[in-house]
Amino acid sequence: MKSIQLNTPRAQIVMVATAIFLSLAALASVGIMIFQMSTVNSTLRDVQANMATKQSPENFEASLVTALNKLASDRAAKETKEKLDKYAAAAESTPKEKHVYGAVDARFTLVEFSDLECPFCKRFHDTPKQLADASKGNVNWQWMHLPLDFHNPAAKVQAHAAECLAEQKGNRAFWAFLDDVFVQSRGNGQGVTDLTGMATSLGAEEGAFRDCMREGRFNSKIEEHVQKARQHGINGTPATFVVDNQTGDMQLISGAQPMQAFMAAIAKLKAEGDEKAGAGSKDGAASTPATGDSKPL
Question: What is the model's pTM?
Answer without folding.
Answer: 0.74
